[in-house]
Specification:
Elements lengths: L4 E3 L1 H10 L4 H5 L3 E2 L10 H10 L7 E6 L10 E6 L8 E5 L2 E4 L1 H8 L7 H11 L3 E3 L6 E3 L7 H10 L6 H7 L10 H11 L13 E8 L2 E9 L4 E5 L7 H15 L4 E5 L1 H5 L1 H15 L10 H19 L5
Parallel strand pairs: 1-6, 3-4, 11-12
Antiparallel strand pairs: 2-5, 5-6, 7-8, 9-10, 10-11
Helix pairs in contact: 1-4, 4-6, 5-8, 8-12
Length: 321
């Protein structure tokens, strides 16, 4: 593996987001754990390689073979690797260009101290979900196959050592759930499932895009509490077209008819403090759980969590996914 460029960390994430239409093919490409030959080419060659694959933000994050050294440059953030990585940690894009796997990318991004825990958990939902954030008109693209899963990330965490970000990754991946279909499903999942020490409701277990058998076939609930057979469905803004509202109502009738209690969640329920607290009350009542939170300063923690999530709510919450 001689003369190989390997995008990692933030640059790998940018590549995945820009390659959204090619993700199934990308994930089927050859993989390796060998780092021999990873290097940094001259400035213009590196820029050409990165730009051709949709990576435009500098400094470029690249993985290098630490045993052969490299010259520090302003246009790169080099991550030196001195030992072979676990198998399948690197993906071959073509002969001279590789990218860290989604699992390793998550671990590496956890080393970025400028990102909050909420940012990292949200990223975990994206990597393990069926959407990627991008520059399209609505800010995201749905994909048919998740980039990875919490199980795969967990396996790599348990098999890799002496890597920056590993401890944080181990602590935060347990707060991520698979199969989120949109940033708003991610936001709702974080609100209801994060521990009360982080401002969440501390409820669970939950299942995203949970399959429910109905007389007319399988339907899916955005966020389900399978044990209590309660589900949350995000409806976007309060006003929808008659056609869309009727379609949603009929779909929910089938789910409710199969024994599920469905709570609709509107954009306004997350923006307005009074409506949000009413949603909390309704959810605890539907679950048959008495709301008793003994964490000191919980209301402050809850407001902090909502404040962290508010940019995503305002950016994506007005759309119905």
């Amino acid at each position: 593996m001689e003369g190989i460029v390997c995008a990692c960390g933030a640059s790998a994430l940018e590549l995945y987001r820009s390659s959204k239409r090619l993700i199934p093919t990308l994930l089927d490409k050859p993989r390796t754990g060998k780092v021999t030959g990873l290097m940094v080419p001259p400035r213009q060659f590196l820029e050409d390689d990165m730009t051709a694959r949709g990576v435009t933000k500098q400094p470029y994050h690249v993985l290098v073979d630490g045993n052969h050294g490299y010259n520090p440059r302003r246009d790169i953030h080099a991550v030196a690797c001195y030992h072979p990585l676990p198998p399948r940690s690197l993906i071959k894009i073509d002969k001279g260009f590789w990218v860290t796997s989604p699992e390793l990318t998550f671990i590496q991004i956890c080393a970025d101290e400028e990102l909050s825990d909420f940012d990292i958990i949200s990223l975990g939902y994206e990597l393990c979900g069926t959407y990627v954030l991008d520059d399209s008109w609505d800010g995201l693209t749905c994909i048919d196959e998740s980039l990875t899963s919490t199980e795969k990330i967990g396996r790599l965490i348990n098999s890799i050592h002496r890597v920056p970000g590993i401890k944080r990754a181990r602590n935060l991946i347990k707060h991520v759930h698979d199969l989120s279909n949109s940033p708003m499903e991610t936001t709702l999942a974080m609100l209801v499932s994060l521990p009360t020490t982080k401002g969440g409701f501390g409820l669970g277990p939950i299942s995203l895009n949970h399959p429910v058998a109905t007389p007319v076939g399988q339907r899916r609930v955005d966020i389900a509490f399978p044990k209590q057979r309660v589900g949350l469905e995000y409806q976007g803004k309060e006003f929808h077209s008659i056609e869309a509202a009727g379609r949603d109502a009929r779909r929910q009738n089938k789910i409710v008819g199969s024994g599920f209690t469905i709570l609709n969640v509107w954009y306004e329920d997350l923006i307005d403090e009074h409506l949000f607290q009413q949603l909390v009350t309704d959810l605890f009542r539907a679950l048959g759980i008495r709301k008793r939170i003994r964490v000191t300063g919980y209301r402050t923690l809850q407001k902090l969590l909502r404040m962290q999530l508010m940019p995503a709510i305002k950016a994506y919450g007005s759309n119905e996914f």
